[in-house]
Amino acid sequence: MHDEKREILNMLSTGDISVDEAIRLMEALEDGERNEERKSEGRKQQGVHDAVHSIKETLSGVGPLVGRIVGEIGTEFQKDRNFPGENEAEELPPLEHEDNRFPIEEGDRLYIRNDKEEGPGGGDLLIESSEGEFCLFDNSETKNFRLLRSSSGPVIRWSGGRLKVTVPATVAELFAYALGGDLVIRDLDCPVRAKSMGGDLRLVRLKRKFKAKTAGGNIRLVLGPDSLEEGTARTMGGNIRVEVLEGTPRTETEAVTMGGAILVEDEFGETRKGHNFGKQKVSVMLGDNGSGSSLKVKTMGGNIEIRRARDES
Questions:
Q1: Distance, CA of 7 to CA of 309 (rounded, Å)
Q2: 146-172 average pLDDT score
Q3: Using CB atoms within 10 A as the burial measure, which of 19, 106, 250, 299 is most buried?
């Protein structure tokens, strides 16, 4: 349990969660630890098979427990220092656009954020690559859509409904945050920071460095022939799946789970099955040719699966 508590403190120090959120997560983990201690007394009189079953039963509740707590605190989605306009004293001017598109100037970062949970699917965000120097957007299903301009680049905010944005390679860096919805990013050729609270993340064939975090959701990574400089993905209360397409460059990969299992296809390495509240760690080399890429994935209360991709979506 020390590893899980250390991870919560790390998320608190980096601003991913608030003090109140950290306290509630700590309490959830301590409840799980007390349940395990009570069950361990009963296991003393059990055979090996029954003992293993009892442990697995306890572990199976860790992920949903964390996910439930995260879901309860979702409306307290932590503000991010990297996002323009978080300071209430900072009022961003509107950005003019024509035909649902706007230009990207040299050095511009792009910021996209869903502000408010509006029920299932309410904050879904799809981001794909585009040619040229313009961002295009489809906000026909959104609520309270706003396009603003900060000193470091354009800012898109909305508070419900599905949003689609296409992003050119001229963007210096993308920040994409979603609350209460799923986030899908495909084929981008710029650095990416993606964060979701209560939704799933799917990152497909990203070509540059990325950082992905979610609380209460799953992460799916699809590595392709043009991937990858460096990537990190973390989730609390969810699972991570890494899929490797043919032609993916060789990628040094580290997978860590606390309270879960790591499942690896035979061609990539070994499988580790979770057997207690401690940490499981596997290092494998993915891909077919080249070198120099790295990937780190970590989950608390979830499983990690590493396999050959079945499709490219």
A1: 30
A2: 93
A3: 299
Record the tokens describing residue 192, joined without a space.
């990416």
Q: Lowest mean pLDDT of 99-113, 144-158, 212-226, name the range.
A: 212-226
Residue that the structure tokens 């990628």 belong to = 251
Task: List, in order, residues 6 or more apart from 221 with CB less than 8 Å away.
Answer: 203, 212, 231, 233, 240, 241, 242, 243, 295, 297
- Is residue 128 within 8 Å of residue 174, measured between CB atoms? no
pTM for the model stands at 0.78
C-alpha dihedral sign at 197, 313, 145, 136: positive
Kindly list the domain boundaries of the chain, sorted by start residue: 2-60, 218-313
Q: Residue 284: what residue type?
A: V
- Strands, DSSP E only, in 29-172? 101-103, 109-114, 125-130, 134-138, 146-150, 153-158, 163-168
Question: pLDDT per residue over 121-150, tens digit each?
Answer: 457 999 999 999 999 999 999 988 999 999
C-alpha pair distances (Å), 263 with each of 104, 139, 300, 305 = 42, 39, 15, 5
Neighbours of 92 (CB within 10 A): 17
Q: How far apart are the C-alpha atoms of 86 and 84, rounded to whole Å? A: 6
**Of 77 and 233, more confident:** 233
Cα distances from 10 to residues 14, 22, 216, 220, 298, in angstroms, run 6, 10, 17, 23, 13
The predicted model gives 20-35 an average pLDDT of: 70
Q: What is the DSSP string of 14-50?
A: TTSS-HHHHHHHHHHHHHHHHHHHHHHHHHTTS-HHH
The number of beta carbons lying within 10 Å of the beta carbon of residue 250 is 14
